[in-house]
Specification:
ten-stranded antiparallel sheet, mainly beta, globular, about 280 residues, Jelly Rolls
Length: about 280
């Protein structure tokens, strides 16, 4: 599918997410709670890459939500990822507690077996609410693609999302197989945008480490995508987006993971382990 068609699909997908989030008052990209370990103006007119600080959570002041993948409380929102929210729903499943392949002994297997091209499977978890500005946040996990499935995805997506004071701060990334690029999502403009970081399909049969860094500014209502690290290679991206005012009454914090099927609806599955959110 051409990039224009892909963009049209993602815009439709995201509009449905906003409607769903406003209706259910959930952050599309989150879910039920893991344990938390505690240690110690007006938006701009457009989103564009910009120099931004790249804070990293310090060990002493951070809170950690660990082993996020290892839970039976991953939620889904049905056809919310399809155009208009009314299209065909792909067959999908998740299975936690996988011993092999795994690193911790408790990986989670996410799978999709679509009957219609470009449908998807979206899982989210609600996490303990963050009621203040996020000064630094990392979202990281290890990903394993089985042999023979290395080119099956259309895209793999993941995000964290904070809703505070009616404003939505969305931190979404997409590994876009079709265009060979990493992209971030502008929630206000309803667009996926290139991060100008090349994406190479993950080598199958081995574990890959992904870590992304964010922060937000609740005064200027700005989202900062600071950096992405893939298999130890860190790239500072310095991308800013405007937050989106939804008017939601409840503050929330969520994380999510999504698999997208390709033009031939090729079934595939991936394993996720050591998923962790660290913030301050």
């Amino acid at each position: 599918m051409g990039d224009f068609a892909v963009q049209r699909r993602w815009r439709s997908l995201s509009l449905v997410f906003i409607t769903l989030c406003a209706t259910l008052m959930i952050g599309c990209g989150g879910g039920a709670g893991s344990s938390v370990v505690a240690s110690a103006g007006a938006p701009g007119a457009n989103a564009s890459p910009a120099a931004s600080p790249t804070p990293t959570p310090s060990t002493s002041a951070s809170k950690v939500i660990d082993n996020v993948q290892d839970s039976t409380s991953w939620l889904t929102c049905g056809a919310c990822g399809n155009g208009g929210g009314t299209g065909p729903v792909a067959t999908f499943a998740f299975t936690p507690g996988i011993a092999t392949p795994s690193e911790s002994g408790r990986a989670t297997n996410f799978s999709i077996a679509a009957n219609v091209a470009f449908t998807n499977a979206y899982w989210y978890r609600q996490q303990p609410v963050i009621n203040s500005q996020i000064n630094a946040l990392t979202y990281q996990f290890d990903l394993y693609i089985p042999n023979g499935m290395e080119t099956a995805p259309q895209a793999i997506e993941f995000e964290c999302q904070q809703t505070i004071g009616g404003w939505v701060y969305n931190f979404a990334w997409q590994a876009e197989y079709h265009g060979g690029v990493w992209r971030t999502f502008d929630y206000g403009l309803q667009q996926w945008q290139s991060a100008n970081v090349a994406f190479t399909p993950f080598t199958p049969g081995t574990w890959h480490h992904i870590l992304v860094e964010y922060h937000d500014d609740t005064t200027s209502h700005t989202v900062f995508h600071d950096a992405i690290t893939v298999d130890g290679v860190r790239t500072v991206v310095g991308i800013t987006h405007n937050a989106f005012f939804s008017g939601a009454a409840n503050n929330q914090f969520t994380n999510a993971f999504q698999l997208d099927s390709n033009s031939t609806a090729t079934p595939y599955n991936v394993y996720v382990d050591k998923m962790r959110i660290t913030y301050q």
